[in-house]
Amino acid sequence: MGLFTPVSPYRKGRHLMTTTPAPVLMDLTTSPYGYLALLIFLLAYVFVVMEEKLGLRKSKPVIVASGCIWILVGLAYQQQGDSHTAGIQLRHYILDYAELFLFLLAAMTFVNLMEERRVFVALRTWLVSRGYSLRTIYWVTGGLTFIISPIADNLSTALLMGAVVLAVGDHNYRFISVGCINVVVAANAGGAFSPFGDITTLMVWQKGVVEFTEFFRLLLPSLINWLIPALLMSLTVERIQPAGERRHQRMKKGGLTVVILFLLTIVLSVTVHSQLHLPPVLGMMTGLGVLKIYGYYLSFHDPIFREQGHITHHHAENTARHSLLHGDHTGVIRRFDIFKVVERESWDTLMFFYGIVLCVGGLASLGYLTGLSTLLYGNLGINLANGLIGLLSSLVDNIPIMFAVLTMDPGMTLQQWLLATLAVGTGGSLLSIGSAAGVALMGQAKGTYTFFSHLKWSWAILSGYIASLICHLWLNGI
């Protein structure tokens, strides 16, 4: 990688255009600074893996590690008589993160507002009230997860459909366990063929190596990735009616409008990127501005609630204003406030992403990723290397893996970049801890969907993973 210019770069097609030469990076992997930086990164990752046991949010250790690593990078280069390269590289990675941060902030606000408007609750109510058998609901939840995750991201979709599985399954623990695995695999597979489906696909799109419409070439391999394990697991699901209560809950005012605004924002982002060669974050932030204006409208026309709603803390306290209007000085009134929705963003995930981007960028500036790229893509071959990094993503978070591959920039063709995207996006399904969707559902269905219940079906998921990679290789003749 190593391309940077103080003047903002712009992307055209798959090329990063710059106006000044890139700084020359040194190989400092065998220096004391290099060893210490690698040790700090590994130590931080131990804390990330033990997040559930320690109760320490994963963003905290990586943010500290990123600062320490870049101080070491600065010291290492300065000792070599270069006092400029470290700062140039750091600004480059901060710029990369800034684009992704604003994009994710806008996308998460849309998803959270759809949740606050009970869009997802209404969908869950509709599914539960249809009177389908458990096997039919198994396929419906998996299919909807595969369809929705490319738009609403795999984590949000997994949580939504996981709630449906829990609501339908009641005390049928076998159905809940298999249903949750089905949702996790479908969410990761569906998110692999859309820039909006996962952070890793978003990173690939924003980097400019794959255009928006080119991601849809992964549709068939992604479908195979989900269908094979889904078919094998469905044999254990009974054709009986679900038990449990069926409550009808409606979408709140403006829910459908928010969905339409989100779709229009996606169209705007794609258009400004493909036609004007501007960063897609411009379209997302513009759409977020329109959403906030619509939120202003809702604040005047939305009914006033007293601790009501799917997410009650999305409503701002407005006691003083209400008291002045009605002469009532006793009650706490809550009214819709768009900024309360923004407060509910997954800030731990956004800050974790910051730490990972800077940690990996620091190690790259010390020369580690150049050596890793040579080991994987030079010695093993690109196709095998991409398959292996997909398996690695089931043990290590897929965000740093994809960022590392993008930073290596091993000179892959479009078809090979798509293979890497498919592998990293779906490889995490092999283990429950291999993806954000799996980790989230383990917390949602504690004691029922567990690491070991998922592990029992890893062989089926692996067969789907291998088949999807073979399908992509066959379709593209590579």
From TrEMBL:
Cellular localisation: Membrane
Transmembrane domains' residue ranges: 33-50, 62-80, 92-111, 215-233, 254-272, 278-298, 350-369, 417-437, 457-475
InterPro entries: Cit_transptr-like_dom, NhaD-like
Record keyword Heme present: no
GO molecular function terms listed in the Swiss-Prot or TrEMBL record: antiporter activity
The UniProt record lists the keyword Amino-acid biosynthesis: no
Keyword line: Antiport, Ion transport, Membrane, Sodium, Sodium transport, Transmembrane, Transmembrane helix, Transport
Superkingdom of this protein's organism: Bacteria
Stretches assigned to the Citrate transporter-like domain: 45-425
GO CC annotations, alphabetized: membrane
UniProt-listed GO biological process terms: sodium ion transport
Membrane topology recorded in Swiss-Prot or TrEMBL: Multi-pass membrane protein
NCBIfam families with a match to the protein in the record: NhaD_1
Family annotation (PANTHER family): SODIUM/PROTON ANTIPORTER 1-RELATED (PTHR43269), SODIUM_PROTON ANTIPORTER 1-RELATED (PTHR43269:SF2)
Family label: Belongs to the NhaD Na(+)/H(+) (TC 2.A.62) antiporter family.
Record-given protein name: Sodium:proton antiporter NhaD
